[in-house]
Design brief:
Layout lengths: L1 H22 L26 H17 L4 E6 L5 H11 L1 H5 L7 H10 L27 H9 L5 E8 L6 H6 L13 E8 L15 H11 L1 E7 L6 H26 L6 E7 L9 E2 L2 E2 L18 H12 L15 H4 L39 E5 H15 L4 E5 L17 E2 L11 E2 L4 E3 L3 H13 L3 E7 H4 L3 H16 L9 E6 L16 H6 L7 E4 L4 H11 L6 E5 L4 E4 L3 H10 L1 E3 L14 E6 L1 H17 L5 E6 L1 E3 L2 E2 L9 H8 L4 E6 L3 H8 L3 H4 L1 E4 L10 H7 L4 H12 L4 H28 L4
Parallel strand pairs: 1-2, 2-3, 3-5, 4-5, 9-12, 9-13, 10-11, 13-14, 14-16, 15-16, 19-20, 19-23, 23-24
Antiparallel strand pairs: 6-7, 8-17, 15-21, 18-20, 21-22
Helix pairs in contact: 1-2, 1-3, 1-5, 2-3, 2-9, 6-13, 12-17, 17-18, 19-24, 24-25
Bound molecules: thiamine diphosphate.
């Protein structure tokens, strides 16, 4: 019973600290009579979720002390409850360990309370700044999948995930419950979800709050969980009930792991705690005739203006006094020993968990030279790049028995990555039928048809130090656009913290790209994510456009060696010609572009008349085809052939070494002459990079303009005016400004190309294929 009393006193103190963070700018220990001058004028934050998070934190700390074998990582879905996490990490000392300003005692406590939501102080959401926090929780929906990612290949770990009942309504969270089917009870750790059913979202009851216990229970049993209810409304003592629920959960987890190991039993259901608490528990009960505690009114700041409104001030004063903190801390602001006794030894405290601090591993990579695709002439040896990438990734798997996984929404095969199945399978624990191929309980490919769930699961895996690649349709990676944005913010914040080590980069492969959607058509053509990623800091984001197999292998090896970035590779899965040797690809990736003189016209000794620039594999092929037309019809036209393999917010070329210095710009794009870009995505993506520069004034940008559907590859290019014919015509018009001979014959040449184009169009219509 002593434990329960301690737990209650602990809860009182962290609840006081949290409420004080929202409201007090001085008189932090309430040593003087509280006045309105002590109240922050900008009161910010979210109170409603806080007492529940505090309750869970205290209970888990006690469990860590009770069970010496336990390793807990805590993922908090309601990241808006930062005051709760701050109060707990302050008390357990992990906040003071990374910043002495917040060491336990009057000064540290005052700094903590003062700095919350204060300019340059603590955010109102959890962030990587807070020890042990691996999940920011601003955009709701991603907590549970992140938690599941952390336990992959971490058999000793229990990741406890607090899921808000509002968050539980999001599509991503709803699908994430299914991830228990991917967790191997022996090889992986366990996720213990705690559904925090405090009944309300911002302004309305949650759906779960309208279900009865039987409905909730049936729902989770069907998903393979074993629900344990802890209910403030019916409990005699919720503190006792919660600790018992935790004990039961950890014991069940042990039994499940043992049983599965010995009998390989299927469907190893795991516990879930359904925690029903009053939203804003222990806060103001009623104000101006309205229920506050146990109502949505307590979601944010329950009293909005206590520094000015006297009635609010009195309500706040009674609320803060109700915790009787003089019974919980001494004269020097140090909490009484019994309260601090709830914690395990310092290295095992939640904020100190080693899983949040793991240095990102460097996976062993196969030699790129072992994957070189040899060819005799550029423009020949058509090969599917995804198949070749599959072989490279297969070897990454072979060289690393763990620490590397592939995530894909049911598309490893349709995207031609079959070689990976030679060495591993799709991870799945629930039974599948005998003829279902390539499944195994320890496979290292996670396939699930939700890009959102996969992204978060991969994020959890990466943040805890491992490497991964997510491969998907280009069009449907947009589904996670906002999630990627959030993650870039997370990396940016994380990188500032000296106590955190670099984490492996997020690697995304966008394949089944828009230019070949013959049978899927218009709905599958969407390169919007490129535009969005180009608005993000180049310090964190690179977009790769490898033109052929060798370039793709080099791009992937670079991505798997990089840290703290989001790498986005666009590469088709179909067969396309080769252009560069492996050593040339390595050289070109250093600067982000290649100058392919071997594809240029032979008219030497003259300045270039025009510069052709390709970005993207299909567009490189179109420019090459345009170069054949030009060489044949207009041999005196001197064009320069540039291929760009990387872009970023910094501009064209490598983000580390962009082509932005004027000398470099002129070396690559010449002076005065027109530059014709043929780009994989929307022309606006390149426009946003060169806007306002001298280059923009002499550039034409061709790209996808939302034309075409289920048609032939060349017709798709023709409809978007990016075809070889369009590039050749544009080159002639541009070159005619400088080349007298071209100027003289330009109309004849253009007519000839139009004839070629209309012949091609007729043929496509008649025979249904390109000539
Ligand atoms: C994707 C997304 N949509 C909307 C919001 C705005 N929002 C912030 S908190 C919240 C309610 C969350 O309710 P719940 O998850 O139950 O948390 P709690 O009640 O414990 O605060 C909403 C809708 C958000 N943060 N993310």
């Amino acid at each position: 019973m002593e434990v329960i009393e301690t737990f209650k006193r602990y809860h009182r103190l962290v609840n006081f600290l949290s409420a004080a963070q929202i409201y007090l700018k001085e008189n932090f220990e309430l040593k003087e009579e509280l006045t309105q001058d002590h109240i922050k004028t900008r009161v910010l934050g979210h109170w409603g979720t806080v007492p529940g998070i505090n309750f869970v934190y205290g209970g888990l700390s006690y469990m860590l002390k009770k069970y010496e074998y336990l390793n807990i990582l805590l993922v908090v879905g309601p990241g808006h409850g930062a005051p709760a996490i701050l109060s707990n990490i302050y008390l357990e000392g992990t906040l003071g360990d990374i910043n002495p300003k917040y060491r336990i005692g009057s000064e540290g406590m005052g700094n903590l309370i003062h700095d919350f939501s204060w300019p340059s102080g603590f955010d109102s959401h959890t962030s990587p700044k807070l020890p042990g926090s691996i999940h920011e929780g601003g955009e709701l929906g991603y907590s549970l999948a992140t938690a599941y990612g952390t336990v992959l290949e971490n058999p000793e770990l229990v990741t406890v995930c607090i899921v808000g009942d509002g968050e539980a309504e999001t599509a991503t969270l709803s699908a994430s419950w299914q991830l228990n089917k991917f967790i191997n009870p022996v090889k992986d750790g366990v996720v213990l979800p705690i559904l925090h059913l405090n009944g309300y979202k911002i302004s309305a009851p949650t759906i779960f709050s309208t279900l009865n216990d039987a409905e909730i229970s049936n729902y989770f049993r069907g998903l393979g969980y074993n629900p344990i209810f802890v209910d403030q409304y019916t409990s005699d003592d919720i503190y006792i009930d919660f600790l018992q629920a935790l004990i039961k959960s950890f014991e069940q987890i042990q039994v499940r792991k043992r049983n599965w190991a010995s009998y390989n039993a299927v469907n190893p259901s795991i516990p879930i705690i359904i925690l029903k608490t009053k939203k804003g528990w222990s806060g103001v009960k009623e104000f101006r005739g309205k229920k506050v505690e146990d109502n949505n009114i307590s979601h944010g700041v329950p009293l909005k203006n206590p520094s000015k409104d006297l009635e609010e001030f009195f309500a706040l004063r009674s609320w803060l006094r109700s915790y009787k903190i003089e019974e919980l801390i001494d004269e020097k602001g140090i909490p009484h020993d019994d309260i601090l006794s709830i914690f395990p030894e310092p290295s095992r405290r939640i904020g100190a968990t080693k899983y949040a601090y793991k240095e990102g591993i460097k996976v062993n990579l196969p030699s790129v030279y072992d994957h070189e695709l040899k060819f005799i002439l550029p423009g020949h040896r058509s090969q599917s790049r995804m198949f070749e990438l599959g072989q490279y990734l297969r070897d990454v798997f072979s060289l690393n028995s763990e620490g590397f996984m592939v995530f894909s929404p049911d598309e490893s095969e349709s995207n031609m990555l079959e070689p990976i199945f030679q060495v591993t399978g799709r991870r799945y624990i629930w039974p599948v039928r005998k003829h279902d191929e390539n499944f195994s309980s320890d496979g290292r490919i996670i396939e699930l048809l939700s890009e959102n769930v996969l992204f978060s699961m991969m994020a959890g895996y990466l943040i805890t130090g491992r490497q991964g690649v997510l491969i998907s349709y280009e069009a449907f990676l947009n589904v996670i656009s906002s999630q990627i944005d959030q993650f870039i913010k997370f990396i940016k914040q994380r990188k500032k913290e000296k106590f955190l080590k670099p984490m492996p980069s997020v690697n995304l492969v966008a394949t089944s790209t828009l230019w070949r959607q013959e049978h899927n058509g218009f709905s599958h053509q969407n390169p919007t994510l490129i535009n969005s990623l180009l608005t993000k800091y180049a310090d964190f984001v690179t977009l790769f456009f490898p033109p052929d197999v060798n370039s793709l292998i080099v791009a992937m090896s670079q991505c798997l060696s990089s840290f703290d970035r989001v790498n986005y590779i666009t590469a088709c899965k179909r067969e396309l010609p080769q252009w560069v040797s492996l050593s040339q690809a390595i050289k070109e990736f250093k600067r982000g572009y290649g100058h392919w003189q071997n594809l240029e016209s032979m008219t030497a000794e003259r300045m270039y008349d025009v510069v052709l620039v390709s970005i993207g594999d299909y567009q490189t092929n179109e420019n090459y085809q345009a170069s054949i037309i030009l060489r044949k019809l207009a041999p005196s036209l001197r064009f320069k052939f540039i291929n760009i393999n990387q872009i970023s917010q910094n501009g064209l070329g490598s983000p580390f070494n962009p082509i932005d210095k004027s000398k470099e710009v002129h070396n690559v794009f010449e002076r005065d002459v027109d530059v014709i870009f043929n780009f994989h995505g929307y022309p606006t993506a390149i426009q946003q990079l060169i806007y306002g520069t001298e280059l923009a004034a002499r550039s034409q940008i061709f790209g996808y303009v939302e034309q075409g559907s289920t048609t032939t590859p060349l017709n798709m290019q023709m409809l978007n005016k990016t075809s070889r014919y369009h590039i050749a015509i544009a080159s002639i018009i541009s070159a005619s400004k400088f080349n007298k001979e071209i100027n003289k014959y330009k109309h004849v040449l253009i007519d000839k190309i139009y004839d070629m184009m209309s012949e091609q169009s007729c043929n496509i219509l008649k025979h249904g294929q390109d000539m």
